[in-house]
Design brief:
The structure is a single chain. Helix 2 links the parallel strand 2 and strand 3. The chain has two domains: 181 residues, 3-Layer(aba) Sandwich (Rossmann fold), CATH 3.40.50.150; 67 residues, rRNA adenine dimethylase, C-terminal domain (Helicase, Ruva Protein, domain 3), CATH 1.10.8. The protein is elongated, with a radius of gyration of 21 Å. The strands form two sheets. The protein has a seven-stranded mixed β-sheet. A two-stranded antiparallel sheet has the order 1-8. By secondary structure, the protein is an alpha/beta fold.
Length: 270
């Protein structure tokens, strides 16, 4: 059976260490009794350790060559091999609307997009595990006050508890990536209502971190398209902070402050 050639345009780095593959597969055990969706299985190095777990399993792979390989190597899995682009899929249709665990050795160039899609489907995905670049994993797990704390940290930790499980060296991949990797696990926290408008929360977080060296009184100005916010708004204590100093709850409070100020400050349409 011919192996699959890693494709640079798809960000493919195939894991070759079976012990690490098994360790990644075992991360889904923390969320038992629900189906598992693996993203980007490639040649199935992770898949082979997920299959014996006896759970309903589907794999989604955009690369036609990998899909053909998986169909040949794992004939029993054929009905569950989905040859599509994960980022374009309707996840509600995968398991008839049931919740599932998301896992994979994620393509590094789209890992952030995968997790933004997870957030859009957070009610379907109580648990997400897998391998990504170490730098991205560090950002996702970072606490306020650290240099790595940023947009991804805040948006994910608003809804998920993030665990940085272990680091993976470059030499266990074909081809070796230029960076180290890490395995993470995210589990839905108890938050069902964030306490503010989620769409505006995302805008506030992204706008604040786009100029992370500035105090909030300066970095939030792009939100106010119809004129500067009022002096009372800018004089609040929180406005002298930088975004990496704020907890999730403080970002929630900030979002509600911004929403109130937007109501009282005339805004340009469009």
């Amino acid at each position: 059976m011919r192996t699959v050639r890693p494709k640079k345009n798809l960000g493919q780095h195939f894991l070759t260490d079976l012990n690490i593959a098994k360790a990644i597969a075992d991360t889904v055990d923390a969320c038992p009794d629900i189906p598992v969706l693996e993203v980007g299985p490639g040649m199935g190095v992770l898949t082979q350790f997920l299959m014996p777990k006896g759970r309903e399993l589907k794999v989604v792979e955009i690369d036609a060559e990998s899909v053909a390989y998986l169909n040949e190597k794992y004939p029993s899995l054929r009905p569950s091999i989905v040859g599509e682009d994960f980022l374009r899929m309707d996840l509600g249709k995968l398991f008839e609307g049931r919740k599932f665990v998301l896992t994979g050795n994620y393509p590094y160039d789209i890992s952030s997009q995968i997790f933004f899609k997870m957030l859009d489907n957070k009610e379907l995905i109580p648990c997400c595990t897998g391998m990504i670049q170490r730098e991205v994993a560090q950002r996702m797990a970072s606490a306020p006050g650290s240099k790595a704390y940023g947009i991804l940290s805040v948006l994910i930790q608003a809804w998920y508890d993030v665990e940085y499980l272990f680091t993976v060296d470059e030499n266990v991949f074909n081809p070796p990536p230029k960076v180290k990797s890490a395995v993470i696990r995210m589990t839905r926290n108890g938050v069902t209502d964030l306490g503010c408008d989620w769409t505006l929360f995302r805008r506030v977080v992204k706008t604040a971190f786009n100029q992370r060296r500035k105090m909030l009184r300066g970095s939030l100005k792009p939100l106010f398209t119809g004129g500067a916010p009022g002096k009372d708004f800018l004089a609040r204590d929180i406005m002298s902070k930088r975004p990496e100093q704020l907890t999730i709850q403080q970002f929630v409070e900030l979002t509600n402050m911004v929403e109130e100020e937007l109501r009282t400050t005339p805004q340009e349409l469009g």
